[in-house]
Input
Amino acid sequence: MLICSSLDEMKRREAAFRFIATVMNQEGRSSLYDLSGLAGGFPVKKSDLNLLETYSGPAIFSSNLQKVGTRHLGGDKVAAFNRTSAAILATILALVKPGEEVIHYLPELPSHPSIPRSAKLQGASYREFDNLQDFQLAEKTSLVVITGSTMDHQVLSLNDFQSIIQISQENQVPVMVDDASGARIRTVIYNQPRAMDMGADLVVTSTDKLMDGPRAGLMAGKSSLIDRIQDKAHQFGLEAQPPIVAGIVRALENFKPQRILDSLERRDKLHKKVGNVLEGVEKTPTGFMITAANLEKEINPDGNENLTKRELATLMAMVLLKEYHLVTIPAVGMPGVSDTIRLDLSSNDAERVDDTQIIQAMKESLELVRELIPDEEASLSVLYE
Amino acid sequence: MLICSSLDEMKRREAAFRFIATVMNQEGRSSLYDLSGLAGGFPVKKSDLNLLETYSGPAIFSSNLQKVGTRHLGGDKVAAFNRTSAAILATILALVKPGEEVIHYLPELPSHPSIPRSAKLQGASYREFDNLQDFQLAEKTSLVVITGSTMDHQVLSLNDFQSIIQISQENQVPVMVDDASGARIRTVIYNQPRAMDMGADLVVTSTDKLMDGPRAGLMAGKSSLIDRIQDKAHQFGLEAQPPIVAGIVRALENFKPQRILDSLERRDKLHKKVGNVLEGVEKTPTGFMITAANLEKEINPDGNENLTKRELATLMAMVLLKEYHLVTIPAVGMPGVSDTIRLDLSSNDAERVDDTQIIQAMKESLELVRELIPDEEASLSVLYE
Output
């Protein structure tokens, strides 16, 4: 037994952080490759920090946000929120009255919980559809939400998109598009128009998804609607704060659609090559993963070893970190975190590590884990020292 | 007429920003004195930026937040929110059911709107009191809120504080203390105990008030309550994001109670001295101010000049900025902003400017404004160039 409790997992996490801190201090940030896909970006410049300490700094970033935000999303005006969920709450509070209805069309049921939850809080009813035949507005419908692309990167067809917008416009009900990842997936990968260019009244996107910004929600739309929503946001403390706005501005300035296209192409190629080394490797929307169960099959097909699959996956993740400086979730996550090893190729750091390095890291780590298994003392030292 | 429209005010603001950017580029941040009191602090270190770009960075700052947060506020556990208003919303959503009641005791009516507004959104009733005789819990009361200190820095008496906590405890209703500025004013200036040490279940403070942190809410309390509130916060996107958490951690590390005491003493001294130069100057909780009306009386007691009091105050603020590098709101604020010139001595930058400089700046700016008044061309250039 290598991992006996959540206390042990906490110790493993602390060991990973100690290792990361040492690498950063001794060799610099550039010798670390965070492919967790959950880092979030905060690409403010060192010189921005001084500006952020003045009253005028935020104002300057807010003006720039209008420029780069409307360039990215279209619309007359943008507003930044603490999270996409916070933007959705503010929108429903601003545009929907208690007793009215929110209806939601998405590529596949069910919805992200933030939409029904916000409707419920406001005392509004809620219906959701993934089928054009069933979709129908009611007398009391005061907001139509369209999800452009789901968390699994399923994308709404252009035909459905346009039909929903047309029906809503005929009924004079505003349409908000939840384009959390869609604002990039739909446009960059599927060549669809931006939501605002298809006639949406509002669109919101997550600035940490397929772009290198902080976790936050950026909304664009018609000025009069944005003003009302922003007012509600300020009332309940939902707006993004100045440092986050600065991070969004810098991330939008750095945004390169080509990087997404490159990462997909790279994923397909890498998935095949890593598959030669590790049979159970699977594609994800922006990279690849190996579940602990598949890893166990690979390492120990007969399943008669002493180690659990979580222990194997954690060992593998810690070896990837310590030997190859690849940061993945099973190494740095909280106790009870997923034991699937994911490598996200749309991560900012993915640019700095090449395919050969990744394949070699996967292959050699697998061998190292096999060697470690019989040696409890060495395994414990990899996990906890 | 110097200022004819909000477009003109926008041009004035842009001119102020251009000037500030030039000063920062040519002479560095240290030659600028932002005494607006609204800058908010973001004292993350340049080396923190690298860490913020990794998954582990936020985790490390979150652990540190527990340490410095509980040291500042007491309690078992802390959580950071995007704003104090967001923390209050999350608390009411977590602890109060529709149909139940929130009651609020504060030094002076009326309440900050965030509390009744959040109760209303949750479908809970709300009552507020500033008088111990009238205060009475109802059967349906499920949360008691105490405001420790108002926006005008009125402080609740220790006796009232203790009585409300005792009544609430007897009725087994949890108490949340809204100690936005109170967590520092009450403890540092009035020597009152921390809210948690008086038996509160929860306390929330604003990390930009009387300390040099970003605008955000920091809540401390019993672990089980904090966990429930944090869960609600994540549902609606109310939690502080990692860069803000880093800013809070650094600000709490830097926090020195003595600076508040020094700024009050300094305010009293300066208020007297500036009063000799500018008769209508008034004390504020953390500095002093001159309203546009009082400035007009000083410059032009007969009120028969061509300039409005807003034009005079804006000219004065722009002269303070351009000649003395003092940033105040009428120079950098949005169109329609308050035309009162406030100097906040609890601002971070106040440490770097001495009393003689401030008095000289006020005195000489006043003289310069008097000289500018007859010269429209020169005045326009001060405002817009």
